Amino acid sequence: MRILFMGTPEFALPSLSLLLEHSYTIPAVVTVADKPQGRGRKTAFSPVKQMALDRDLRVLQPGSLKDAGFRGQITALKPDLIVVVAFRILPPEVYSLASFGAFNLHASLLPKYRGAAPINWAIINGETETGVTTFFLRETVDTGSTLLQARVSIGPDETAGELHDKLAAVGAEIVLQTVRLIEAGRAPRHEQDEKNASKAPKIFKNDCRIDWSMPAPQIHNVVRGLSPAPTAWTTHNGRVLKLYRTRSIQNWKAKSANPPGFILSVERDELVVRAGEGEVSIVELQQEGKKRMSAADFLRGYDLHAGDLLQ
């Protein structure tokens, strides 16, 4: 079976790698255009492009997915199937070019968490379980009939980055199983139940600012759901502090009537902040422009005191 693979970030790498390991023919890989990154603005390849080059695969990087020349390239490749893992929204005139159609790997148990940030929102909302789904592409995003799903538990302190890696690995296995079922003519099709649908929209910087009036468990979920990216943040005396790990504390030693965001303790490695209900211990953080570090290391080099306010 000839598979045209479309993807961009690291999440897609296990799926591409597993298809190659099982000797599927990948006539080309489609990914985003190269972009300048970092302070030096050096041109950087997407992770998928880098893997494709390492494996001597042809790489296509269309500016527009509706470009007639790009569609002509796909037609000339004669793909049996298009596999999409963390790529752009495909128009029907592209995903209809493969004889067996096109399917996508999505990092949630559809129809829950449709959208660009399913991993983040699952943790932010305090879910204890999520998963991956393969589904046939349809014009309306993330609504196509599903093929396979796999469930994955979410630990109480697990971050979005850690869950991302678990789901990428599990997702690769589901992609392989899905390809095999399509190849054998035994692919299941299950229509999504719209009554259970929920959204996982893209998250922007302003969405990541901590609201200290929220209960401590909810703040903890927001921090880990945004870690390591796009990263929860707060400010101290006008300086941005990014938060990567926290603990929710229910019965802290010093009860306080102070306002949310009030710093209760900066002793040793303990940076405890008053929440709307309960307290939050900041475990790992970063001052803007500095390195990410533990609370203990941070407190040794940053002028922070009990009684200060985070906003």
User: What is the number of domains?
Assistant: 2
> Termini separation (Å)?
56 Å
**Highest CATH level, the class of the largest domain:** Alpha Beta
Can you tell me the overall shape?
Answer: elongated
Task: Write structural notes for this entry.
The protein is an alpha/beta fold and 311 residues long. The protein folds into two domains: 3-196, Rossmann fold (3-Layer(aba) Sandwich); 205-301, Formyl transferase, C-terminal domain (Methionyl-tRNA Fmet Formyltransferase, Chain A, domain 2, Roll). 25% of the residues lie in helices and 24% in strands. The protein is built from eight helices and 15 strands. The chain has helices at residues 13-21, 47-54, 68-77, 92-95, 118-124, 160-183, 216-225, 295-301; strands spanning 3-7, 29-30, 35-37, 42-44, 59-60, 81-85, 102-106, 129-136, 146-153, 232-236, 239-249, 263-265, 272-274, 279-287, 293-294. A seven-stranded mixed β-sheet has the order 5-2-1-6-7-8-9, with helices on both faces. Strands 10, 11, 12, 13, 14 and 15 form a six-stranded antiparallel β-sheet that branches. Strands 3-4 form a two-stranded antiparallel ribbon. Helix 1 (13-21) packs parallel to helix 6 and helix 5 packs antiparallel against helix 7 (216-225). The protein is elongated and about 65 Å long. The termini are far apart. The relative contact order is 0.11.
Short description:
The protein has 311 residues and is α/β, with parallel strands linked by helices.
Question: What order do the helices and strands come in, and which of them pair?
Answer:
Blueprint: E1 3-7, H1 13-21, E2 29-30, E3 35-37, E4 42-44, H2 47-54, E5 59-60, H3 68-77, E6 81-85, H4 92-95, E7 102-106, H5 118-124, E8 129-136, E9 146-153, H6 160-183, H7 216-225, E10 232-236, E11 239-249, E12 263-265, E13 272-274, E14 279-287, E15 293-294, H8 295-301
Parallel strand pairs: 1-2, 1-6, 2-5, 6-7
Antiparallel strand pairs: 3-4, 7-8, 8-9, 10-11, 11-14, 12-13, 13-14, 14-15
